[in-house]
Amino acid sequence: MVKMGLPKGFSSQRTRLSAVLNMLSLSLSTASLLSNYWFVGTQKVPKPLCGKGLPAKCFDVPVPLDGGGTNASSPEVVHYSWETGDDRFTFHAFRSGMWLSCAEIMEEPGERCRSFLELTPPTEREILWLSLGAQFAYIGLELISFILLLTDLLFTGNPGCSLKLSAFAAISSVLSGLLGMVGHMMYSQVFQATANLGPEDWRPHAWNYGWAFYTAWVSFTCCMASAVTTFNTYTRLVLEFKCRHSKSFRGAPGCQPHHHQCFLQQLACTAHPGGPVTSYPQFHCQPIRSISEGVDFYSELHDKELQQGTSQELRKAASSSVEEC
Question: Name one Pfam family in it (predicted).
Answer without folding.
Answer: GSG-1
